Amino acid sequence: ELVQFLRTYYLYLVLPVLAFAIARLAFGIDGLYGQDSYEYLRFTKAIYAGFKSGNLPSNFFWSVGYPLVGSIFIFTGIPAELSLQLVSLFSLIGILFYLHNILLPFAKNAHVLKYYLIACVLFSPLVFRSAMVCMSDMLCVFFVVSHIYHGFRYVNDLKVTHLCFAIFFAVCGVLTRYGV
């Protein structure tokens, strides 16, 4: 079953990771640009320190979803800057996975669908850039696409688990883009 999964989705895993590695290692793209990225980084470190000390930070007027996920990555030993970039990268990979499964019933050829999705990502500057920077955009899109997928699955299967996932991802999407 794992072999079949990898055979189906390997391009969605390998190509974004390869592009990320080239961008980061060859071109030195650290994902930090402009004031917003640095503020997300600052608050990610503050949440991480708050988890360790028990005193969660305040004074953040933006959404907390993205820095929260980034701070969880820091517990694995990954530096904060890289952890935020990885959140964006893994979000792109998850988006590709969910889009593949959303569009598969409409596709005449699954292989063509795979290459079409990869081409859309690699040749779309906005999507490609969003997967490389320390911003909440990709994570929010991941939550929205996940919500749509599970919403469709609930309508088709009427399984409560898909309804619960759809609600969960919708709430996460809101918490990722809107300050609370």
Question: Which key phrases capture this entry?
Answer:
single chain; 180 residues; mainly alpha; globular
Please provide a brief summary of the model.
With 180 residues, the protein is mainly alpha-helical. Helix content is 76%, strand content 0%.
Describe the 3D structure.
By secondary structure, this protein is mostly helical. Helices cover about 75% and strands about 0% of the residues. The protein has eight helices and no strands. It has helices at about 1-25, 35-55, 65-75, 80-105, 110-120, 125-130, 135-155, 160-175. Helix 1 packs parallel to helix 5 (about 110-120), helix 3 crosses helix 4 and helix 4 (about 80-105) packs antiparallel against helix 5 (about 110-120). The model has no long low-confidence stretch (mean pLDDT about 90).
Total beta-strand segments: 0
Structural class by sheet pairing and helices: mainly alpha
Number of helices: 8
Assembly annotation = single chain
Spatial shape: globular
Low-confidence spans: pLDDT under 50, at least 5 residues? Answer: none
Query: Strand-residue fraction?
Result: under 5%
Helix content: over 70%
Question: Helix and strand string, N-terminal first?
Answer: HHHHHHHH
Instruction: Tell me about the largest β-sheet.
Output: none
First and last CA, distance: 41 Å
Mean pLDDT level: 91
CA-based gyration radius: 17 Å
Secondary structure elements and pairings:
Blueprint: H1 2-26, H2 34-53, H3 65-74, H4 80-103, H5 110-122, H6 125-130, H7 137-157, H8 160-177
Helix pairs in contact: 1-4, 1-5, 2-3, 3-4, 4-5, 4-7, 7-8
